[in-house]
């Protein structure tokens, strides 16, 4: 059994020294248990906050714990009446090649043509995009929707659903290749590079009618560029703030919270944070049905960035926080 543990808590950006790889025997299931073999492991930005001791919506990991994470597994051996060897399941077994389960919290993936999609467009990240945009963003035809991390797991789906709703969609992404993909493959109207020194002016030019919905994945300089362009009555689903996950303190410069508060007040902007499964779990079946159709008929496209080998997970995760991934980041832990 190969396992990746949290060796130490990161100060700022994580490094490979914060992780430790351990090898041990493969556990054997007792009566009522099943042995899961990990095929795909999802790497997600929220894992950075679990590595910290700071209070958040979910408990922090302790040093020496197996890194947490959602997985798509094969049942390798079963002594549980509801499962048979060979079945695909969605689990939460973390960064390890094998794990025992008593069946609690598992979801069978029978019927899903490509099981890895249960970690992305047909899983947590697609669901986040769907609920955050439709419930909180409430996009209407003709409105302008802006989303950053635009080619990532969440952002790519946000923009495509906004197009389906008849909106003008402006993406923001890191680099020319991602921006080209957002326009040519995902159908966004425009996509801007957040590393451009002229981002604020370019965004203003790309949003001549202002911004009605800003789906916030990033924070930082992207939000600084967005704030002055938000229209009266704009909605801001507050999904993530990846630009500040490695921050060790508040940003330099003057306190801009008075400007933010005044803008929210005078333009009657609704900004709402959400934690997808805590807030919207009851909508999951409806999401799966709708998104399953959109993916099957090609209406919503997706891109997976699959890195081979559990040993490469620490480096891939470090890269996720720096924009090295292109699409939903997944580790192929074992053979299909
Ligand atoms: P992505 O697949 O979008 O990967 C992360 C991307 O973030 C990188 O590829 C990079 O894209 C971008 N990024 C990283 N650092 C910066 C930076 N400093 N400035 C601008 N962009 C940056 O990840 P996900 O789709 O899984 O997650 C997107 C966001 O959604 C995250 O903030 C995450 O925490 C949040 N989230 C929230 C959930 C909730 O329930 N609230 C659930 C799931 C995700 P690029 O190269 O384009 O800059």
Q: What would the keywords be for this entry?
A:
336 residues, alpha/beta, 24% strand, 2 domains, 7-stranded mixed beta sheet
Descriptive report:
- With 336 residues, the protein is of the alpha/beta class.
- The protein has 2 domains: 2-120 and 302-332, Quinone Oxidoreductase, Chain A, domain 1; 124-277, Rossmann fold (3-Layer(aba) Sandwich), CATH 3.40.50.720.
- Helix content is 27%, strand content 24%.
- The protein has helices at residues 46-50, 124-137, 153-164, 176-184, 199-206, 220-226, 257-266, 276-280, 284-296, 313-320; strands at residues 2-6, 19-23, 34-42, 71-78, 88-91, 98-101, 107-108, 144-148, 168-173, 190-193, 211-215, 230-238, 270-273, 304-308, 328-332.
- Strands 3, 4, 5, 6, 7, 14 and 15 form a 7-stranded mixed sheet that branches.
- Helix 4 links the parallel strand 9 (168-173) and strand 10.
- The longest helix is centred in the middle third of the chain and has 14 residues, at 124-137.
- The two termini are 17 Å apart.
- The structure holds NADPH dihydro-nicotinamide-adenine-dinucleotide phosphate.
- NADPH dihydro-nicotinamide-adenine-dinucleotide phosphate (NDP) binds next to helix 2, helix 3 and helix 6.
- The site of NADPH dihydro-nicotinamide-adenine-dinucleotide phosphate has 32 residues, from helix 2, helix 3 and helix 6.
């Amino acid at each position: 059994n190969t396992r990746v543990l949290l060796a130490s808590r990161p100060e700022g950006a994580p490094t490979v020294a914060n992780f430790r790889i351990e090898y041990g025997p493969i556990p054997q299931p007792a009566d009522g248990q099943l042995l899961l073999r990990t095929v795909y492991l999802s790497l997600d930005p929220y894992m950075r906050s679990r590595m910290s001791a700071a209070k958040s919506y979910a408990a922090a990991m302790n040093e020496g714990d197996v890194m947490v994470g959602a997985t798509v597994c094969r049942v390798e051996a079963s002594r549980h009446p509801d499962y048979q060897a060979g079945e695909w399941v969605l689990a939460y077994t973390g960064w390890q090649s094998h794990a025992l389960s008593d069946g609690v919290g598992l979801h069978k993936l029978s019927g899903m043509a490509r099981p890895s999609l249960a970690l992305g467009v047909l899983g947590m990240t697609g669901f986040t995009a769907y609920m955050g945009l439709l419930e909180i963003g409430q996009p209407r035809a003709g409105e302008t929707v802006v989303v950053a991390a635009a080619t990532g797991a969440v952002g790519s789906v946000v923009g495509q659903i906004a197009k389906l709703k008849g909106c003008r969609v402006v993406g923001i992404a890191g680099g020319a290749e991602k921006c080209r993909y957002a326009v040519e493959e995902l159908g966004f109207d425009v996509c801007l590079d957040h590393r451009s020194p002229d981002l604020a002016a370019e965004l203003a030019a790309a949003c001549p009618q202002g911004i009605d919905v800003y789906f916030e994945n990033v924070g930082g300089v992207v939000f600084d560029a967005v704030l002055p362009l938000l229209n009266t009555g704009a909605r801001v689903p507050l999904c993530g703030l990846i630009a500040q996950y490695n921050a060790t303190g508040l940003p330099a410069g003057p306190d801009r919270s008075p400007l933010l508060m005044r803008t929210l007040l005078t333009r009657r902007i609704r900004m709402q944070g959400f934690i997808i499964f805590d807030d919207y779990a009851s909508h999951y079946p409806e999401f799966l049905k709708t998104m399953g159709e959109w993916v099957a008929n090609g209406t919503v496209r997706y891109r997976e960035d699959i890195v081979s080998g559990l040993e490469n997970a620490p480096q891939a995760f470090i890269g996720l926080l720096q924009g090295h991934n292109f699409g939903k980041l997944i580790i192929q832990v074992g053979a299909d």
